[in-house]
Every structure is written in C-alpha cells, then in structure tokens.
Amino acid sequence: MSRLDILSLFEQHGILPTPQRIEVAEILLERPQHLSAEQIIERLKQADSRVSKATVYNTLKLFGERGLVRELMVDPERKFYDSTTGPHHHFYNVDNGELVDIPGDQVRFADLPALPDGTERESVEVLIRVRTSR
Ligand SMILES: [Zn+2]
Question: Domain holding 36: CATH number?
C-alpha cells in the first residue's frame, strides 16, 4: 500500500498522520494479515526504526478504535490486529498461534437466538480453534 493510500485511509478514519503511525500502518496494511504488537515491534526493529514500543501499543489501540484495523481477542495472551476489516471468520491454531481467514460467506447459520430486547445485530464472528493432528 502506498503512502498516499495510507494517508487517505487515515483521513477516512479520522487519524492524524504522524511519521510513527505511518510506519506502523505500512507494516500492518502491507497485505491481508494478522499481526500481534510484538510481531510489529520485531519488524520495526529489523527495519532500524526508532518507533518505541509504547508508541506501537498506543498506535494500534487508536487504529482499532477508529476501525482502521480489527482487534482480535483470540487468546488472553495474544491480541492480534487484522488488516482485513470486512466481515469474515477465522481458524485459530492453538499450537502455533496462526490465524487463517475464512470468507464470511463460507459460514452459514441455521439458527441464531433472538437478540436481547432493545438491541440490533452488529456482527457475528466465528472462531474455529484447531490443533495440529497427532
Ligand atoms: Zn482475518
């Protein structure tokens, strides 16, 4: 994704562009992927970046709040940031922590419970936990 595309996405999501935020977005939005904060910090380090860990955490929190990326709570130990924000589901491999996308239309629901009074459905997400076969 070009810097211009990133700046335009920032504008759409009401995010003020700073060099640090652009660096983090360049890594995360490079392709459809799921990265943890630690993985992003590691990639920044490899690129000799000076963005601090605290800035990475704050930036990811902001990106999540503004809907630029999706926060995935798959495991209390690991929060992932998903560059794909449209509706879709996931396989999560509990052995190696790998997340794989499932297109939204590949999961069908025969029946869903009635929603609590006064609410409307925002989204339904499925996480299928898998482990390596033994
Ligand atoms: Zn995903």
Answer: 1.10.10.10
The torsion angle over the Cα atoms of residues 120, 126, 87 and 58, rounded to 10 degrees, is 90
The Å distance, Cα 117 to ligand 1 centre, comes to 30
Judge if 72 and 95 occupy the same domain. Answer: no
Domain of 100 in residue numbering reads as: 88-130
For the chain, 134 residues long, give each residue's pLDDT as a single digit of tens: 889 999 999 999 999 999 999 999 999 999 999 999 999 999 999 999 999 999 999 999 999 999 999 999 888 888 899 999 988 999 999 998 899 999 999 999 889 999 999 999 988 889 999 999 98
At 1, list the tokens: 């994704």
CA of 88 to the centre of ligand 1 (A): 6
Residue 75 Cα, ligand 1 centroid: separation in angstroms? 15
The closest alpha carbon to 35, from 92, 93, 98, belongs to 98
